[in-house]
From TrEMBL:
<dbReference type="GO" id="GO:0006281">
    <property type="term" value="P:DNA repair"/>
</dbReference>
<dbReference type="InterPro" id="IPR023214">
    <property type="entry name" value="HAD_sf"/>
</dbReference>
<dbReference type="InterPro" id="IPR022468">
    <property type="entry name" value="PhnX-like"/>
</dbReference>
<keyword id="KW-0378">Hydrolase</keyword>
<dbReference type="InterPro" id="IPR023198">
    <property type="entry name" value="PGP-like_dom2"/>
</dbReference>
<dbReference type="InterPro" id="IPR036412">
    <property type="entry name" value="HAD-like_sf"/>
</dbReference>
<protein>
    <submittedName>
        <fullName>Phosphonatase-like hydrolase</fullName>
    </submittedName>
</protein>
<dbReference type="GO" id="GO:0008967">
    <property type="term" value="F:phosphoglycolate phosphatase activity"/>
</dbReference>
<dbReference type="GO" id="GO:0005829">
    <property type="term" value="C:cytosol"/>
</dbReference>
<dbReference type="InterPro" id="IPR041492">
    <property type="entry name" value="HAD_2"/>
</dbReference>
<dbReference type="InterPro" id="IPR050155">
    <property type="entry name" value="HAD-like_hydrolase_sf"/>
</dbReference>
<dbReference type="Pfam" id="PF13419">
    <property type="entry name" value="HAD_2"/>
</dbReference>
Length: 227
């Protein structure tokens, strides 16, 4: 049995299966500027980040743009309504076994927190589609709107620790489907960092961040936490 008291999970690609709609939308608004960026490039340079920052980083690394700030602002302004329209039509599901896994964690007095590079409106739209409620399925939601610095800064993790009065980062687990999730966890000195293969990035990409574990699905954590 581990000494973990706080489990912090990314949303899209980790706990929520939304078929990369966010990154497909990032790809669309960038390519609407006249570029030809691939989804793989968007996932490589944008996964897990606050979405304005993700757009800037994709433009910087994948295009010859001479006006990064201006074009990023234009694309981000288009991104919000485009994502809202996409989510209104999209069928969203959890990955298999997720509610039962959350329940088991909470029964073992491990707080379940979702943190995300989404803004609060988008994150709450996802929760509503899944009928997940704070205080029932999860204990807390922290979004990019709640902190001054997004991933890979550890601010969202620190905010969750403060909320639950967890002072020892060794008692915190962070899991996500992108390299930046793992770096975020390491920057917060989390006791366990985990990459999962259900979302944005490949095993090779996740291995670059040197997580403690790379799992096929998040629910495989049961074998680690409760063995």
């Amino acid at each position: 049995m581990s000494n973990i008291k706080l489990a912090i999970f990314d949303m899209a690609g980790t706990t929520v299966n939304e078929n990369n709609i966010v990154y497909k939308t990032v790809q669309k608004v960038i390519n609407d500027l006249g570029y030809h960026v691939s989804l793989q490039e968007v996932l490589k340079f944008g996964a897990g980040k606050e979405k304005h920052q993700a757009i800037k980083d994709v433009l910087t690394n994948c295009t010859n743009s001479a006006q990064i700030q201006e074009e990023a602002a234009t694309a981000f302004a288009a991104f919000k309504p485009a994502l809202k329209a996409a989510y209104n039509k999209l069928e969203i599901a959890t990955f298999d076994g997720m509610p039962r896994f959350f329940k088991k964690l909470r029964e073992h007095e491990i707080h379940v927190v979702l943190n995300t590079g989404y803004n609060t409106e988008t994150a709450n739209k996802l929760l509503a589609k899944l009928d997940w409620k704070i205080g029932k399925e999860i204990d807390l939601l922290i979004t990019a709107d709640d902190v001054t610095k997004g991933r890979p800064a550890p601010n969202m993790i620190h905010k969750a620790m403060q909320h639950f009065k967890v002072t020892d980062a060794a008692q915190v687990l962070k899991a996500g489907d992108s390299e930046i999730d793992i770096i975020e966890g390491k920057n917060a000195n989390c006791g366990i960092t985990v990459g999962v293969l259900t979302g944005a990035q490949t095993r090779d990409q996740l291995e670059a961040a040197k997580p403690d574990y790379i799992l096929n699905t998040l629910t495989e954590l049961e074998n680690i936490l409760f063995d």
